[in-house]
Amino acid sequence: MGGRLLASSQPEPPLSDIARSPAHGEDSPYFAGWRAYDEDPYDPVTNPSGVIQMGLAENQVSFDLLEAYLREYLEASDCGVGFRENALFQDYHGLNSFRTAMASFMETIRGGKARFDPNRIVLTAGATAANELLSFILANPGDALLVPTPYYPGFDRDLRWRTGVNIVPVHCRSDTGFQVTARALQAAYDEAVVAGARVRGVVLTNPSNPLGTTVERAVLEGIVDFVARNDIHLISDEIYSGSVFATPDLVSVAEVVEERVLHGDNRGVAARVHVVYSLSKDLGLPGFRVGVVYSYNDAVVAAARRMSSFTLVSSQTQQTLVAMLSDAAFNAAYVRANRARLRERHEHVVAGLAHVGVSCLRSNAGLFVWVDMRLLLDEATVSGELKLWRRVITEAKLNVSPGSSCHCSEPGWFRMCFANMSVETLDVALQRLSCFMERWNKYTRK
Amino acid sequence: MGGKLLLLDASPEAPPPLSQVATSGAHGEDSPYFAGWKAYDQDPYHVIFNPSGVIQMGLAENQVSFDLLEGYLREHPEAAGWGGAGAGAGSGVASFRDNALFQDYHGLKAFRKAMASFMEKIRGGKARFDPDRIVLTAGATAANELLTFILANPGDALLIPTPYYPGFDRDLRWRTGVNIVPVHCDSANGFQVTVAALQAAYEEADAAGMRVRGVLLTNPSNPLGTTVKRSVLEDVLDFVARKNIHLISDEIYSGSVFTAPDLVSVAELVESRARRGDSGIAERVHIVYSLSKDMGLPGFRVGVVYSYSDAVVTTARRMSSFTLVSSQTQKTLAAMLSDAAFADAYIRTNRERLRERHDHIVAGLARAGVPCLRGNAGLFVWMDMRRRLDEATVAGELRLWDRMLHEVKLNISPGSSCHCSEPGWFRVCFANMSLATLDVALARMSRFLHKWNKYNNTARTALEK
Prior knowledge:
In chain A, 42% of the residues lie in helices and 12% in strands. With 446 residues, chain A is of the alpha/beta class. The longest helix of chain A has 28 residues, at 328-355. Chain B is of the alpha/beta class and 465 residues long. Chain B has helices at 20-23, 32-42, 66-75, 96-101, 109-122, 140-151, 168-171, 195-207, 230-243, 266-275, 310-319, 327-338, 340-367, 394-406, 435-464, and strands at 55-56, 134-137, 157-161, 179-183, 212-218, 246-250, 285-290, 303-307, 380-384, 410-411, 413-414, 425-429. Chain B has a seven-stranded mixed sheet, sandwiched between helices. Chain B has a three-stranded antiparallel sheet with strand order 9-12-11. A two-stranded parallel ribbon of chain B has the order 1-10. The radius of gyration of chain B is 24 Å and the shape is globular. The model of chain B is unreliable at 1-12 and 84-93 (pLDDT under 50). At the A-B interface, helix 1, helix 3, helix 4, helix 6 and helix 10 of A face helix 1, helix 3, helix 4, helix 6 and helix 10 of B.
């Protein structure tokens, strides 16, 4: 019986506006590509001509390091001891030892250039939840958050869907390496005001998804000044902070806050700054749902903590990871090795793409490259880009993410992930792209 | 440096404002329910180190069956880990990599199947659950909020029979902007919901300009510890059909029914109505479940939204992105709950132990002269202290509660924090402590009431003279 609904003559009671809104975002091309992959997934043995998934920003290059540590830890730990206390632990403060471990890991990532107070760490089930939480806390329905483009497609859902908050894009262009400019920030602010939306904050992703670049120090300082001047907040999503594999080093907003506090912070910058983190990318553990809201604002920490009741991290998972992340030697070794492996992958992809005549934005972080396919567009428009994207999916059988799904204002850019597959598969993808480019070159030369 | 804000002479600008949601009091932490917890936190009972401390009887946890879980994990260590050499594809043991990467909001299929099966066993096979209608959330707290977001707009109303779980004020209202309109129940009929009360609440919402979107029932009830009668459940279903609204049935305590009458789950009624030709009712019905109470695993954050409406399942699934269950935890529990022999034994044993505890506390309170509502489920009793109020008001109840907390050193939950319209009732938890501690609590109650009786008899005698 369970669940088989017979045809009914009674109208179904209506659902809410939120339930019926398309702001869950699943109708965007970002997800259409995933569907193409789901229907025809590549497998080297059973489906060698299937679609290769290059649209999923996962980090699979360092599992062996985690696995070895965790297996040893779990075998050593008696499954009975401490089980009861752990199973009962639902305190929204989170396990003290786990918060301390997270703070320590975040410090290691930043090379000790900033300190993190474990009491300012609020745990959430992933960065998805952390970003939504901050949106609920900092903005009212109808208010606006300014988000530099191109940005992670998930923000459309995470920041807007249930909160009713608007995103106003801060347009960035390739002529400035897609770095945020003061003029672009101001233009976005003015656009929001004209639309009658009260601006509540700026949401920066540093390192950037999809660009794979760190934010320049001068730009970061400019943004911090901007939020202070306009009496708004700054959310810095630093989910990729552990994946900076080449210079320039990451300049985290945490560093900037500390410097300003040291020099007097008479503009009250600290209370405006909130950092988001997660273990989903740097540690490759998206399934474990470990996210962080870190705020220098006591009221935000208190509100976030209470709100985290809706999205707590499993106490089992906190306990499992605490030993590993408290181990300073492990942290340092992991961060170092992970960076080295990502750098290798990155260089391999960039070289492979260059070999077939495709250039990327010069990048130093993340799990993807920002590929420049502008020359391949039949017309420099979104529809031209989507036409090209469909060809890449159906002919080259590669799922890459079109820049328009990231709200990029310049058509022709694509995000291509490189860390969610084996090197062999990556080479197959590069080979396919080579064939695709060859055909395109031949065709356009005619 | 990290985070320590220096006090500055040059007065810093005021911090930028937060949202209305952030500054509203709807997080609920200023209620007496939480004040009692604070008193406990400051002076917690410990048999050796603090024998005169506050005994926590306000926390509905189930601690009576941990040994069963611990035993399973000791015998099946691979459930909590990812296997030794040879683990991985083909070895039957989920590989670490696959598990760590799994963030699909559909949830682990094996875990959904295990949950569906567990929910069926709890209902003695009287209803079936389709694993594809199970949406996983990080706890029932999230499940209830999710359904509220899905079924109601800000300003709309949900009707909730009183007394109800204090957490609903936050879970259903805080971020959603949805209102709760209480459906008043009283002891005259054992606090069962009546159609008249439902109708009165509906009209009250209407008069206040609120659009009613649904009824939320907790079955078995928290704080009453009773199952909802079949006829009442049928009436509630008829009511929601008549008004074209939804029904959320929070069945988080369904595995804790330890005495007749058996649980009648709304799932049973949906199925029996479908068999009779009424299938329209199904799409209005949504069930919430969790492992926090029946299995005593609140830390693991395992909640369920189960809906007979495809649109609700799809939307809930998407929305669960904000509150997914750790894949590690899904894997561990999938193994445990798929073990039919274990699940059967657990359910049976857990019930027996809860029945023992329940009977023990009811008897102890009776000896002290305190009656309770006749309960057959849950982790608490609904204690009747109406005769001990100085006046039959909320203020009188809170005065008595304050004495219980500071003189008797028992943190129990006052009925007013559960929105009970009759002052004098208290929820007393019995499964979150050892039997020895429970006996200490009962002894304290007994002494307190002995003194109270003496005082009141003396006073009465004095009056009569």
